[in-house]
Amino acid sequence: FRKAVNLPHLHPGLGANNRAFHKMLTDGVDVEYRHKDGHIAGDKALLVDFDHPERNEFLAVNQFTVIENGKNRRPDVVLFVNGLPLVVVELKNPADENADTHKAFHQIQTYKQEIPTLFAYNEIVVLSDGVDSRAGAFLSPWERFMPWRTVEGQQLAPASMPTIEVLMRGMFEKRRLLDLLHYFIAFAEEDGELKK
What we know:
- The structure is a single chain.
- The protein is an alpha+beta fold.
- The chain has one domain (51-195): tt1808, chain A (Alpha-Beta Complex), CATH 3.90.1570.50.
- 29% of the residues lie in helices and 26% in strands.
- It has helices at 2-5, 14-27, 101-114, 116-120, 163-171, 174-183, and strands at residues 29-34, 40-45, 58-62, 66-68, 71-73, 77-81, 84-91, 124-128, 133-136, 188-190, 193-195.
- The mean pLDDT is 92.
């Protein structure tokens, strides 16, 4: 766990830190331990049990305060898995015609600049204004944030169901979330820029 916590100080740049963390999350962390007979052995310590969702701790925190470099910020919701802040949700007021998912996206860009340590561990960003709800990666441009359209994975959710409900119930069912984290997040270099 110490290796994961110290990660933001190991790599030059937020994207590189996030990629290194994702590898730790999916592959485990190399550890050494001493057997009773005194010899040293190595193994992998898993940060998340992907095979048994019930063995993990899930916690959603409303208005989680992050203080970094003199900046005090409160993302609307942060979802922790085993104490790791893997999901950031930015919500905008549906009654405010000037507050939409584009504004939520720009708020995330501000958070990346002002509280970057939070994003060293981030796997998914959710944006919602109550009407439009999208998910993506913090390294992705706006165009890569997409709606989630199904709750159970087989058929589209009814149009009458709020988009945030579809996304939350569909994407954040525990096993599905862990599968997304484990199998459906990839990194690539494109024109010298890291993409997630």
